[in-house]
């Protein structure tokens, strides 16, 4: 039967653990059947090693094309426990053999499929707290302890040494289907929120990521560390990135109206357009549910609590007004946008702890001249503090993009500062430290003012017109320093 499949006489091959060792079913260049293999993984079982070895039967060297893996699971929630073990083992295998976590799984599994990750353990502790407080509908503390045989409490209340994630997942298999659905749905919701929050904060470990753009050019390279023994160097590279803008078309924006809860909005102050659609609710640490909304705009999309919409200037609009505002904004979008990246490459381990700890991702990219770069990305504020007097000068466009990123405060002459602030759910560029005498001049330059909590505040436009406003400001008040800060 195996030979009939490889000789293209049979289109389907079924093999078990017995046929998962010492056999090859890949699209071998020497075989007649070189079609795409679609490998369905049925009943992964307790032994992750056996499943991984089975996956290796259809993905080997000297093949015409790699297979398409399709893990199959039923609606029995606890069955994901088996796939989770395989996902964890593949992640570990990739980290050991290639130095990159994704190479083991080859993108087969999503981050949330690994139910034994630190995020999953954190989500489980929060699930235990919800059960203890009685906040989980359909499963009381007594019902949970009776069904699973796990004890969550002692004489002092909730235990410090709660059952680990592996024990919880194993006990889940013994529950009724309905109880599995209740517990696992709550667990998945908490896990998704943890992963989504970590990704949004820029602290989620995605392994080695590849940066892609229309163009990468190294504009400056400086040695910031030399190992005394080997002479290996650590370089700080300044890279000019050119990226093609891909705004959302008007037709795609109107397609969201297929959702009956979608609304067309126009901002009464800025005359910008947005489509409001429902977003996944977020569970807070105290167990309460926070409804959220998502605003889709021509060049970005953001999610925020629904309650703050009442304090914004977004108003529901008819299709004609929305179309006019969306089309006008699309006309302002440039074909390309240019930014500056700072990458620390080369020897990293000796200075790892000196690099920013709020974002530890490792990136790779290839420049226009073929140079391949792997390293840590650092902020302009870190570059300025590292190079001190040799810090590169920033243009108005660079300052505009840097402040909008939210991780840097730009200090100017005359004691003023530019930083990102969030007002009524919208990110703004705020100027602080200005004097009463300078207020009128700054407004003439293009800054606009608002009185918030009885205090006058000045803001720079966040669209393309803001670059010209900053250009006039920097001509009089140049940049004197950069200060790192957390995103807001």
Which keywords apply here?
488 residues; alpha+beta; six-stranded mixed beta sheet; 21 strands
Write the layout of secondary structure elements.
Blueprint: H1 2-6, E1 38-41, H2 48-55, E2 68-71, H3 80-98, H4 102-105, H5 118-133, H6 141-148, E3 153-154, E4 157-158, H7 165-172, H8 177-201, E5 208-210, E6 215-226, E7 233-244, H9 250-255, E8 263-267, E9 273-283, E10 289-296, E11 301-305, E12 314-316, H10 319-332, E13 336-346, E14 362-366, E15 372-377, H11 380-387, H12 396-405, E16 408-412, E17 417-423, E18 426-432, H13 439-445, E19 448-452, E20 455-460, H14 465-476, E21 479-484
> Rg from C-alpha positions?
27 Å
What's the overall geometry?
Answer: globular
Number of extended strands: 21
The N- and C-terminal alpha carbons lie at a distance of: 61 Å
Commentary on this structure:
With 488 residues, this protein is of the alpha+beta class. Among the domains are: 250-332; 382-488, no CATH class. Helices cover 31% and strands 26% of the residues. It is built from 14 helices and 21 strands. It has helices at residues 2-6, 48-55, 80-98, 102-105, 118-133, 141-148, 165-172, 177-201, 250-255, 319-332, 380-387, 396-405, 439-445, 465-476, and strands at residues 38-41, 68-71, 153-154, 157-158, 208-210, 215-226, 233-244, 263-267, 273-283, 289-296, 301-305, 314-316, 336-346, 362-366, 372-377, 408-412, 417-423, 426-432, 448-452, 455-460, 479-484. It has a six-stranded mixed beta sheet with strand order 5-14-15-13-7-6, with helices on one face. The longest helix has 25 residues, at 177-201. The protein starts with a helix and ends with a strand.
